[in-house]
Amino acid sequence: MKAFVVERYGKDGLRAGEVREPELRDRDVLVRVRAAGVNPLDSKIRDGEFKLILPYRPPFVLGNDVAGVVTRVGPAVRGFAVGDEVYARPGKDRIGTFAELIAIDEEDLALKPASLSMQEAAAVPLVGLTAWQALVERAHVTAGQKVLVHAGSGGVGTMAIQLAKHLGATVATTTSTANVDRVKSLGADVVVDYKTDDFATVLSDYDVVLDPLGGETLEKSLTVVKPGGLVIGISGPPDPTFAKELGAPWFVRTAIALLSRRIRTRAKRRGVTYSFLFMRASGAQLRELTTLIDAGHLRPVVDRIFPFDETLEAVAYVDQGRAKGKVVVTLD
Fold first, then answer.
1. Taking a C-beta distance cutoff of 8 angstroms, is the pair 120, 85 a contact?
2. What is the pLDDT of residues 65-104, one digit of tens each?
3. Potential cystine with 243: which of 60, 80, 234, 256 (Cβ 3.0-4.6 Å)?
4. Where is the Enoyl reductase (ER) domain (predicted)?
5. Are 162 and 187 in contact (CB under 8 A)?
C-alpha cells in the first residue's frame, strides 16, 4: 500500500513509498483511511525531537489523526463491525495514518460524528483529545473560572476555546490581528492581539492557562495565573510526571527532570503549578467529544484540504505555522 514514511530523521526525511499492509492483532480494527489530519506533532516526530523518549525507529509511517471505514476486525473485537465509519488518534506507539490502511486498537477508536464529513472528522482527534485532557481531565475546569488559551486560531486553540466556553469558563486567547473575529466567533470573551499587546500586562488572575507555544510564552504565562492555578504546556519542557507515565529508564527520567527544573522552580515560587501534557489515545474520550460535536457544542475548524499525494506539501504548509485551525489530507 502507499504511505508516507520517515526514512530518516530530519526535514527531508519524509518520503512517499510502498509498505506492507498492517498486520491485525486480536483487538485491532483495520481502517481504510479516508482522511488524515496533519499536526505540528508530525513535524516534531519527523525531525527526531522525541526519539529518546518515544518508540519511533525509522523507517516508520507518519501521521496521528485518522477518519475512515472499518474493513476488517480482529477476533476479540466487540465494539466495531465492517463498514463502520470511525475516527481516532492511534496510540503513540502505533502511529501511521498517512497511509491507505492502518490497524488501531479498538480502545483507541470511536464511531465518527454523524454530523461531520470524513475530512472534518479527521481534524478532531488529536486536538480534541488534547483539549479534553487538559481542560476536563487535568484542570477540572468549572463554570465561572477563567481560562487562557494561547494561539487561539491554531488547531488546539480553536478546539480548546470552544470546550472551555462549553464548560462555563470565561475564555481569553492570544492571536494575530487577522484572526480576532475568528476566535471571537468560537467563543473567546477576551482577545489579546499579540502584534499590538503583551498578554502578561493585560491579563491577570487566571485559573488555567493552556499553552501550545512554549518558550517565552510559557514563562510569561506563570505571571497571569492566580496562586494555586495551573499552567499546562503541550510543547514542553516535559516534566517528571510525564517521564513516570512513560515508564522511562532512570537516566531518561533524570534528563527530563533537568529539562523542566527551571520552569517548575519558577512556578513553585509563584505558588502555581506547571504540568506538561502529551496527549494519549482514548476512544472513550472521543465518544464524549462526538456527543458534544453532534449536539452542536463543538466544531472543527479546517483551514486547507490536500489530496493524499500532496501530503509532503501539507506537512510543509503546517511547518509554516500559519494554519487557521487544522490541515487535512484526503484519500477520497
1. no
2. 999 999 999 999 999 999 999 999 999 999 999 999 999 9
3. 256
4. 10-329
5. yes
Question: Do the beta carbons of residue 121 and residue 267 sit within 8 Å?
Answer: no
| Distance from C-alpha of 108 to C-alpha of 284, rounded to nearest angstrom | 8
Give dist(CA 98, CA 232) in Å, integer: 29
Query: Three-state DSSP class for 269?
Result: helix
Strand-pair partners of 15: 5
108-129 residue pLDDT tens? 999 999 999 999 999 999 999 9
The CA distance from 222 to 270, in Å, is 8
Closest to 282 (Cα-Cα) out of 110, 67, 63: 110
- Where is 44: in which H helix or E strand? helix 40-46
By the 8 A CB rule, do 186 and 161 touch? yes
Q: What is the enclosing helix (H) or strand (E) of 35?
A: strand 28-38
Q: How far apart are CA 174 and CA 182, in angstroms?
A: 12
How many Å separate Cα 33 from the centre of its chain? 19
Q: What structural domains does the chain harbor?
A: 2-123+300-330 (3.90.180.10), 126-276 (3.40.50.720)
Helix (H) or strand (E) holding 128: helix 125-132
The three cell numbers locating residue 77: 473485537
Cell of 297: 457544542
Q: Is 173 helix (H, G, I), strand (E, B) or coil?
A: strand
Query: Using the 8-state DSSP alphabet, how is residue 113 labeled?
Result: P
Q: At what angle do helices 125-132 and 283-294 cross, to 10 degrees?
A: 100
- Crossing angle, helix 125-132 and helix 155-166, to 10 degrees? 50
Strands lying side by side in the sheet with 14-18 = 14-18, 2-6, 60-61
Q: How many helices (H) and strands (E) are present in the chain, helices listed first?
A: 11, 16
Residue type, 321: G
